[in-house]
Amino acid sequence: MEMGTAGEMPVAAMVTQIIGLLAMSWFVGVTAVSNSLLTVILATVAFTILAYSGGLFTRKSAYARNVDAGYWIVCLVVMIICQGIFRSM
Asked: How confident is the model over 14-25, as a mean pLDDT?
């Protein structure tokens, strides 16, 4: 596999990823303030399952599906830890 140039980077995919992470962090923050973290955990697990099924429809490899699912679960864990750290300050 050859690496492309910086001009060939998938800018739309990266921008969409950033927007998704910002929206998720906002959702985690709002639920943390109202002490409803179970809601964000349930929503993230549901979204992860839906994304996993999308990977099955598009015939992604098991490794790619697991990486995609793990990414969102790890993001959720990091965001909840950050909420705990920043709320205690």
From this structure: 93
